[in-house]
């Protein structure tokens, strides 16, 4: 797994209920008031956001082979709810798969189970948070397979970007330049800072936790294979043949991806062109 630091899509809002009973002594809002409130909120959001209700992903989503889960994460929305009720949202644009015992680049290589990597051996959907350099964190999610897990590498910020920027700034030197939106979550440790993912989240269940979860947007179609680049993982160069296996997946052309692999993208384009040529010949 990555051991070194590397230096709008989809949001849904809960549908306001404009009818029925008065609660907590507050007068009911008329439909026009509710609509005005929603418009006020949307003014702070990306024009690409969906306003329809999102769907939280359950255990059945996480219960799949590691490579499949790593690809399935792409396009989903990671949500972090802070103690004040603020919800930080980011769309997953890059992941890495770590396949467990056989994978020499994995923390669970050889089936080794330790106090630190216990979450990798727990049920699919279990969060595995580990430190690097003693100060940075990375977030993973367990999948099918003994000791297998997906590293969440990069997100596209979708909401509460100012809050994310403040959380990132708290970990940076005084006077550092203001981060661009695409720089807030474009790396595994960066996204943990921006979403305030803490070490205590280790071994929590992403399918049921009340402070962090994964959603899909019913208005958006699933990511198609042609959008996904497969490339070697980052920071595993010392692990022999496993260093070159294409187990990193990212959305092609997305500005929030941490590191682009031009060779993999060219190979992908060549394969697409060849496929299209063959299809033309059969017509």
Structure description:
The protein is 22% helix and 20% strand. The protein has 283 residues and is of the alpha+beta class. It has one domain (31-282): 3-methyladenine DNA Glycosylase, Chain A (Roll). Strands 1, 2, 3, 4, 5, 6, 7, 8 and 9 form a nine-stranded antiparallel sheet that branches. The longest helix is centred in the C-terminal third of the chain and has 21 residues, at 262-282. It is an enzyme of class 3 (hydrolase). It catalyses: Hydrolysis of alkylated DNA, releasing 3-methyladenine, 3-methylguanine, 7-methylguanine and 7-methyladenine.
Briefly say what this structure is.
This protein has 283 residues and is α+β, with helices and mostly antiparallel strands.
List keywords for this structure.
alpha+beta; 3-methyladenine DNA Glycosylase, Chain A; nine-stranded antiparallel beta sheet; 9 strands; 22% helix; MPG; DNA repair; MPG_sf; EC 3.2.2.21; hydrolase
Give the DSSP E fraction (strand runs of 2 or more residues): 15-25%
> Per CATH, which architecture?
Roll
CA radius of gyration: 20 Å
Can you identify the CATH class?
Answer: Alpha Beta
The best one-word shape is globular
Summed over residues and divided by their number, the pLDDT gives a mean of 84
Q: What is the helix tally? A: 6
**How many strands in all?**
9
Which sequence of SSEs, written as H and E, runs from N to C? Answer: HEHHEEEEEHHEEEH
Count of domain modules = 1
Question: What is the assigned CATH homologous superfamily?
Answer: Methylpurine-DNA glycosylase (MPG)
State the CATH topology: 3-methyladenine DNA Glycosylase, Chain A
- Sheet having the most strands: 9 strands, antiparallel
Gap between N and C termini: 46 Å
Structural class: alpha+beta
Helix content: 10-25%
Low-confidence stretches are 4-51
């Amino acid at each position: 797994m990555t051991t070194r630091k590397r230096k709008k899509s989809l949001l849904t809002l809960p549908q306001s209920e404009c009818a029925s009973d008065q609660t907590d002594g507050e007068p009911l809002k008329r439909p026009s008031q509710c609509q005005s409130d929603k418009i006020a909120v949307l003014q702070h959001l990306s024009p690409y956001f969906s306003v329809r209700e999102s769907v939280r992903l359950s255990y059945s989503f996480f219960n799949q082979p590691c490579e499949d889960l790593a690809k399935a994460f792409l396009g989903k929305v990671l949500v972090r709810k802070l103690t004040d009720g603020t919800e930080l949202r980011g769309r997953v644009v890059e992941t890495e798969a770590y396949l467990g015992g056989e994978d020499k680049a994995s923390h669970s290589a050889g089936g080794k189970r330790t106090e630190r990597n216990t979450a990798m051996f727990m049920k699919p959907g279990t969060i595995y948070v580990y430190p690097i350099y003693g100060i940075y964190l990375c977030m993973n999610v367990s999948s099918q397979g003994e000791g297998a897990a997906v590293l969440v590498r990069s997100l596209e910020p979708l909401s509460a970007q100012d809050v994310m920027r403040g959380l990132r700034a708290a970990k940076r030197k005084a006077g550092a330049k203001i981060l661009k939106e695409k720089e807030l979550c474009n790396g595994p440790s960066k996204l943990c800072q921006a979403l305030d993912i803490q070490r205590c989240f280790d071994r929590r269940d992403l399918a049921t936790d009340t402070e962090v979860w994964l959603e899909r947007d019913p208005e958006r179609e699933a990511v198609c294979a042609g959008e996904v680049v497969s490339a070697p993982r980052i920071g595993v160069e010392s692990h022999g043949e496993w260093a070159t296996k294409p187990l990193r997946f990212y959305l092609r052309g997305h500005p929030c991806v941490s590191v682009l692999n031009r060779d993999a993208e060219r190979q992908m384009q060549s394969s697409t062109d060849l496929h299209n040529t063959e299809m033309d010949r059969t017509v």
